[in-house]
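OP here, attaching both records as promised.
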Amino acid sequence: MIEYEILLDSSNMAFDDWIQIAEDVMKYYDQYDGFVVLHGTDTLSYTASALSFMFENIGKSIVLTGSQIPIFEPRSDGSDNLVSSLLIAGGLNIPEVTVFFGNKLYRGNRTRKISANNLNAFSSPNCVPLVEVGIDFEVNKKAIFKPTNKERCHLHAKMSKNVGLLRIFPSISTSLIRAFFQPPIEGVVLESYGAGNIPSNREDLLTEISAAVKRGMIVVNITQCLRGGVVAAMYETGKFLSECGVVSGYDMTPEAALAKLSYVLSKTELTYQQKVDDDTLLEALALTLNIESQNKLVEVTGKVFNALLLYAIGKNDVGAVKMMLDMGANINTKNSDGSTVLHEAVLKGNMQMIEYLLKNGAEVNIWTRCGESPLLAAIHKDNVAVICLLQKYGACLSSEDRKIVADMSSLAARCGDLKKLKTLIAAGLDLSAPDEIGQNLLHKKIEAKVKKARSFVELSILNTSNSVKSLGRNERRVLVLYTGGTIGMVKNKDGVLVPQKGAFENLIRGYPQLHDIMSWRQRLSEPNFDTSFLVLPEAKELDMRISYKIIEYENLLDSSNMTEQEWIRIAEDIMKHYEEYDGFVVLHGTDTLSYTASALSFMFENIGKGIVLTGSQIPIFEPRSDGSDNLVSSLLIAGGLNIPEVTVFFGNKLYRGNRTRKISVNNLYAFNSPNCVPLVEVGIDFEVNKKAIFKPTVIERCHLHAKMSKNVGLLRIFPSISASVVRTFFQPPIEGVVLESYGAGNIPSNREDLFSEIAAAVKRGMIVVNITQCTRGSVISPMYETGRLISECGVVSGYDMTPEAALTKLSYVLSKTELTYQQKVDMMVTNIRGELTNTSSIAIEDNTLIDALASSLNIQSPKKLIEVTEKVFSALLLYAIEHDDLRAVKKMLDMGADVNAQNSEGKTVLYEAILRGNMPIVECGETPLLTAIHKDDHTIISLLRQCGAHLANVDTKPVAEMLSLAARSGVVHKLESLRAAGSELNLPDEIGQTPLHKAVLCNNPAVVRYLLSQGVDKETKDILGFTPMDCAIKLELTNIIDMLK
């Protein structure tokens, strides 16, 4: 064992330290069978990645490891990690730089530190482990990387420091971008959204990036997501980066991309293009298959390149297609069903790809094994533009094709499919030509109309005989805001997914799982039914029906283009309709969905209804899509469950919005909430975690804070980060910065220049928030010396906030200009919307009760125990209400009792509290306002209104009846209760008479006087056309006539 003279906290690791470690290993390379490097966890993945590139043609094992708990503690992971690393380095033939942690060996340049406080601190999101250690060592030999040539191991002991790592975030300023692309920087790793996207509506960003590439800078595009990779030109927003000359980093980790870029840039003997390209494939094929014959190598590589060409077409990757063709792939190669690359491009509708293939000699009249030509495929897809392009290059229909087309035209005429007929005309079909029985398309159209009329009559009779249940008071109304995103996208002429205006709702109405057409038709006869609503089919999970309206935004956005202006617009649109609907669903693209959810969670203060954000990874109109399930479940949750938070629903789970992160580019389970349990899990049933739902801390109405500060930044610390980059982030107009530090909140303690810049910024009044780069875990200050120093600079701990939550919360707090600097700092460290882990926990005696239940009832299933304890706690809550025991009520609610639990008479705990007039207990619950009106308790009405209660649409009929009865009976105090509750005193009944009409007809001058004092409308006419004055004149009520005058 060799101990370094100066032991380093890994936060202080820099490029020079990597080189020293590499040189020390190389110095003893021939003397040892393997090597173990003991290293701190914070930058271990950076070091492992750097060493993996510096050691060229390595033939021995280098294992990096460490521990989360010091090895000298009674309980530590250090001993197991060290022993296993020694056994692997010395006993297994794995010639790579690797990382061993938590009983798994990973490829070093594939690892990331994902947890600040878990013993399984590392993961390899896009690559399987090389070894898993249990009772035995299970080696995945196929996964081990093999050298591409037979040369001796060589150390490239140079690394360029002139690199940067920049994370894109909404409304990132041009000045920050420009700072990263200034000399001496030679290369930048860009962490973009999702599959490799940045805002396409930000020409300033694209201009800066394009100019940097033209100056010879290498810009590498990787995803911010934990899993998945950059998919070139999948979306329009990602296509622009490719066109700027940005290089795809595919599924590289940030650590690997930064280290590889540093390594490549240090190879001064290479040209710019050589640095960008990767030419090792031929050598790898020759070595792997032991091919020595040049002719055989050409034959084998031809097969490989053809396979890669078909793969590239399948992924819609124009750049990869061009590369494979340049390397010698056959442009007319066929897959297993006989489809060529041109067939595949036509099916995807990628005009750019089709034109490129045709220009480069792709055969246009070629058929699959099923007899389909590219032209026939284009006809099936109704793509007129592609049809015209293929015909331009000589495409024509064979005799067999013409028979198929004739059958298609006959079917289209019978079904009234005008779109298909237009397609066939474009393909050259003669519409007047008769078929084999002498009928042309006009005959088919007339026959179809007769059948259609008959089927409509049959359907109408069926609808009448099979009536559906009236929605009535069991109806819940949900507003859906469709802002854009993958869920409603279609492919454009280039095969790229883009939003399409006006298509979404019309297509949704044709999906039976999203719209119950029979129920909708049944309701057409109801007065005042809004036909723009859609009706969700009945769901067994809820005893209510959900009707919903879709508002589609005028300009549909790719979520990569979202900024704080769009956040404010979404929030204002919800607030505008807040009292009209029971819940809200926002359809949003996935790339910045977590940013938007976090922003909305802070902007809505004291929210009392559910706002669910969702979207999909695959468009909802594709045969296979996650969009339908996500939308249906979101509607049911927003309308049927009482979860007054801004949430995200994805992959059968509902998460708190400000706790979510997009973790995968290509998995349907794209989101996760690393530091907070899901609020709802959807399986056969909806499993609601009631204890996890965030409860407001004050009693006030919902209020929208429609401001967000743009002057915020998000800076990720990386080894050897330059002081100039840090300085740029801390310059005006920036007012606050979120610092993504290593591990539990550390930055290099030996970099006085960084501390000076940060300390100076804080002294100028800037708020700097420290969060961890790890996916899971929290900033714990000061756990290490490196963390203590940053805390002493005045940097605020962000605890376990996500980058999205920290950035949006900082933007929200800074926009509160009425607060002092200290109040803003205090708000940043306070849990205001559930964005921080709540440190409170169930007391020991509470666990004792739960344990006793499990023991007494012999419950071994955790799920069953939760169900039983909920029932018990809810029963105890009802008991506490009946005995006016405020302390017990609070205790039961804290332990997870259902605040809406009902007794045997169906009365909720709040109902009982209101009947008893118990103000403190009412403050613990929610708002059946009608009960308080019945009791004429103005104090409780005022309290309920203060915390956001309002009369919903389903209350219209009982409110109208109460108004009518009060006006007829002369009960002024009841009218005052209704007014205090927000009732409209002009509300008409079923015959159009207002309370003023009723008061006049029943000769109640006191009520007339009260209503007039409240400014009611005197000119309203009932269904017979009479105003209140007309009624008073007919009844000769002189005193009331004088009042009305």
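Record two, same layout:
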Amino acid sequence: MFGSLTKTFKKILGSKADRVIKEVMPSVEKIKAVYPQLASLSNDELRQKTTDFKQTINEYIAKEQEEIEQLKAQAEAEESTDQKESIYKQIDDIESSIDNKLEEVLERILPEAFAVVKETARRFAETKAVKVTASEMDKDIAAKRDSVEIEGDQAIWHNQWNASGAEITWDMVHYDVQLIGGITLHKGKIAEMATGEGKTLVATLPVYLNALTGRGVHLVTVNDYLARRDAEWMGPIFEFHGLTVDCIDNHQPNSAERRTAYQADITYGTNNEFGFDYLRDNMSRTPEELVQRKHHYAIIDEVDSVLIDDARTPLIISGPTPKGDKHEFAELKPVVEKLVTAQRRLITTLIADAKKKLTQEVEDSKAQKKLQEDGGMALLRSYRGLPKNKALIKFLSEPGIRSQLQKTENYYMQDQGKEMHLVDEELFFVIDEKNNSIELTEKGIELISGNNTSDDFFVLPDINMELSEIDNSSIDEQEKIAAKDRIIQDYSIKAERIHTVNQLLKAYTLFEKDTEYVVMDNKVKIVDEQTGRIMEGRRYSDGLHQAIESKENVKVEAATQTYATVTLQNYFRMYHKLSGMTGTAETEAGEFWDIYELDVVVIPTNKPIARDDREDLVFKTTREKYNAVIDEIEVLVKQNRPVLVGTTSVEISELLSRMLKMKNIKHNVLNAKLHQKEADIVAEAGKPGNVTIATNMAGRGTDIKLSKEVKDAGGLAIIGTERHESRRVDRQLRGRAGRQGDPGSSQFYVSLEDNLMRLFGSDRIAKLMDRMGHEDGEVIQHSMITKSIERAQKKVEENNFGIRKRLLEYDDVMNSQREVIYRRRKNALFGERLNVDIANMIYDTVGSIVQENTDVRDFENFKFELIRNLSIESPVSEDDYMKMNANELTENINELCVEAYKQKTSLVAKSAYPVIKNVYENEANNYQNIVVPFTDGKKTIQVVSPLEKAYESEGKELNRSFEKNVILAMIDLAWKEHLREMDDLKQSVQGAVYEQKDPLLIYKFEAFELFKQMLDRTNREVVAFLLKGNLPQQEVQAQVKEAPQQQQAQPKLETSRTEIPSFSQGQSSQAQNSGATAPSKPKVEPVRVEKKVGRNDPCPCGSGKKFKQCHGK
């Protein structure tokens, strides 16, 4: 009903895409009107247009730029911190207004700029050599590339050049529909364009226009091959107009070459490298190490792959962690193998029992009903014990069996599953395949605890009850403390043990080799479910990857500690303007809007699509399905048509390959194990009679071109051997045929044993087939069946969206904290707003000390904290302290601290200047930077300062360098530790679901408290060191020495992406069970949601001391 109403409204009002296209058509008409006028311009005049555009843009924002310069000078001279803060806020507001003004002026010049790009493309397509007056940039390019030559004062641009190892001849000019796509991208939307419609060429239009601002345009691709190819393929069109082009994937991280690549007008690169460079920049210690600039505009190629498929995998830079190589996988692996073997034997018996009872017929109706009930129970137990058992899957495809399973499950699931324990009590563990969770049963715990002396080897203690018993006991305090330590340690060990067993169970029962992962080069490598490609460097989270490594008998990699992390979702949301292009975004339009506020616009095709998309063929078993596929391939090969067979896993592609070999049909196989041959295999895929078996990787970045002979034979035939859980992937596969109006066909073969059908789609279809009395080998084909399958896909897509949204909600908490820390780091690196930050730190530290002591009116502790943290005596007497309110006290002490700090910095500058002056005047040629030690009496820090600036500022620059070094060192140390605590917190809160609480809500509360404590602790440490830090008492001359030129040594860092499985694979980081058998992975200290112990409260250890003087130190 709703579908028909929607269609009616579309006919009356038009679709959203139609309305958007209607809005941009006036701009398209303007471009078409300007374009013919450019033909009369000389090549030099055409190039001059770019200079004119830049001048127009600069004039439009000149007033704001001038204001910013004046405000910066004013801020530098301003003494008042409050005034400085106000000025910097004005600067930020003006910067934001400049972004808006740039959009206004770009909109104004858009028609002429797009026409310039199109005219340039036409001249290169129609002329072998384009001659212009040589510029310095032309000469530089000619020295590096053969495609540009210099003859006298002329530069000759040839229309042939090398792109990623292949010689290409430029032969493309923009269609009208490509102009629509270009306008859509410029407006910050997603352009959905069919295969063969020239997305790469479309991007040249908005890239050129936005590069004119000089603020950088990033074109993001899914792999480094496409980044390099597109930069070299499209680059000459931009370079002809004096715009610089580079690709970050051509250069090493943190190198000068990569820094130059980011300074280019147009920068190509992969999504991973853009994200990792952002993280590396926020770990750098000097401004010279930074590579990225402000995130202005990005176009993402294959945007659905990057912002949806890859978005659930956080980018992580990690380093070594203490005892990271310590784990129990090797010790517990035999235990888990024993458990899995016992379960398999049990399931085999249960399936045989179910077959016997469900197929047996007796005359007595009561006895028959009892047989059905018992058989249904055995069947349900089999399904909950090992749902991927092949014998079980085959049995479920028989008439009436799946219906019986559903009926039995519904009976035991009623009343919130209170009777389900009767089903599970015979099993060793229970698998919930839809949620990808595993729960050990009592029987399973008994089995794996059998060889251990303790019955509670795998049972968590009730920590609260046991600690309470110790508190109420009569033993002395020292013994109580020791007993509590033993309980907490026991809890930690057992929690880790149970978590390890859980992950090993998942590795053995839910993750299959050559489906979810492959083993290559003695390493476990994850296969991308969307593309079939190997995802290098990516690992499953939460110890699951280590469990799979243990299962496959390869080296179990050591655990690492997170140093910096960000999700792609939050990285790309930093851009002022974001847009994307792909062939399949419409099905995920809701997610693009909810998360990124990106509209999806379907761009019309240049020629009507002539592909024949047929209704799905549904079989009962996979055997029947694959036989039908092979028969169809035989027929198509005889018709001399090329065939592309799409599979969902390496295993299926190899099975079909074996079947084709038996039929003596020549073919190529393209999967994760053979991805190196991708370009060669795809090049052959469009030839007459060629058969190519490919995992879903054939759907991204491939363009199969057909000869006239093939087109006459009917074009490329697409055969899908299984419906993917995402409609986008199926549409990508279909899109390989029918490019630019070519003929072709697509046909999907589906069986009730397929994963998607088995989990979500087959109940109604199975009943329908049973009622119609379908025999083995018979097939169903109807539009209703196809729609039913698509509804099943929608269910999975909704659940996958839920997982990604949940991940983003967790990362949003981290992101708000990340922004605060990274802003402080940036201010410290550049020094512009450092004085404001330091003043705020002093004020916050004073406020914190005053607040925590005023509440209890503890004057003695107040005096102690002032001396310890601020190195000052209390400016008020005890009587005044008792009378004054907190705000008044804070203001008084803050003024005192600020004044003391000014005197101290002045004294340091005065003491150091004679030495700096002597070094500069006598050895300036030898020294560029100097190292000066500072100490607070306990710790010493070596401060690097530029010699010339230190001399010119009469020692003041030394103080600034000291402040930078201290803040960066303290922040980095605290942030690294905070990330570890946040990782622990994220795991430990998952257990809250078993207490009917929302883990995310608890995570937000606890994360806020952790961050507040971290900031307070960092502020105190920074302020204490700044106020106490001074030059050593010895002769300063002896302490000053030349700073080494090399960068500071860093620990060995790794970049990786932690894989979080999708809905069909489950969430490896989610808590799996409850109670004694299945906690989430807790750490040594469980998360507390009750009231925290105050610093002045009695210490919980029972010592009688205040918490701050005992365990709160």
